[in-house]
Amino acid sequence: MKIGMVGLGKMGGNMAARLVESGHEVVGRDPSEDNAQNASKRGVEVVSDKQKLLDTLPEQKIVWLMIPSKFVADEVSAWLEILPKGSILIDGGNTKFEETIKHAQQAGEKNVQFVDVGVSGGIVGANVGYSLMVGGDLAVFGQLRPIFESLAQTGGYGHFGPSGAGHYVKMVHNAIEYGMMESLAEGFELMEVSPFPSIDYSKLAEVWQNGSVVQSFLNGLAVPIFSKNRNLEGIEGKVNMLGEAQWSAELARTNNVDFRTIQASIDRRTDSMAGKTSFATKFLAALRNEFGGHDINKTSEDADKNSLKNV
Fold first, then answer.
1. Residue 269 — φ and ψ, nearest 5°?
2. Of 50, 57, 195, 253, whose CA is between 20 and 30 Å from 235?
């Protein structure tokens, strides 16, 4: 299949390259020259404007947006002005599910199919595959299956309901991720104050990763983190948030769901941004960098470095 990918950064660029490696054709755009050049080197056909991207696609137009959520609304509106009837517009970013429902309604008025895909896997997904949580029309999901199969790990994608469902389950996924990361961070901080200063944290994480009930993708990342930097030296410990865990917490309060564990993880990150850092928050920052490529000692995201006004 041939699709357009809008946004060729850490996630979009790797996803586009994975599709190319799987035999698909991808034409992409990005305001960053570095991102565009990197994608081009990996087989992505890079173009300079929306219309050129559209003209390069076959009769069935499929455009995938992989951009920060704060730019999605404007970008959706702009694409709906030029996409022909019967096109498919995919939002793979972390958009609020309520906004996604509105975007789907907008698209429906233009006779364009709107699909939301929650994507998990970080920078590691480029090699091992992603987890894809899809919302939208079931028939369109089936039409896009070859793309999902190329991007995802085996068994790593699924349809969860109408438009908005994909982003809803991704929102909850990210909130769970916060809680899991926080529990690991607290555990290793307790190790740090133990009477046994010679404990090898990398070796410990490796042991836990082989047969322990706490083995997980996140625990597995502790192995390289501590093997490279046992004492987490040079890490400030300020841990940024992108919003989804807070959205989940708001919904939990509205629906009287006890959310104490995940709320505590949100509070920890809020406190860290105010300067209350610790070994635990340093580990959280290192963990975000390991799976997502987020800058360890910067509180703003790379995506904000370039305006997406002309994407």
1. -70, -40
2. 195
Q: Which residue intervals of 8-94 are DSSP H helices?
A: 10-21, 33-41, 50-56, 69-82
d(CA 109, CA 211): 53
- Whole-angstrom CA distances from 13 to 28, 37, 124, 126, 150 are 9, 10, 13, 9, 15
Write out residues in the chain with pLDDT < 50, as ranges.
301-310
Complete DSSP assignment for 191-219: HHTSS-TT--HHHHHHHHTTT-TT--HHH
Q: How far is CA 98 from CA 17, 57, 66, in A?
A: 30, 30, 18
Q: How far is CA 54 from the centre of its chain?
A: 25
* CA 260 to chain CA centroid, nearest Å: 24
Alpha carbon 301 to its chain's center: 13
For tokens 């028939």, the residue is 139
What pLDDT is recorded for position 307? 43
Residues known to be catalytic: 170, 177
Alpha-helical (H) ranges within the chain are: 10-21, 33-41, 50-56, 69-82, 97-109, 125-128, 138-143, 145-151, 165-192, 201-208, 217-228, 244-254, 260-273, 279-292
Q: For position 157, what pLDDT does the model report? A: 98
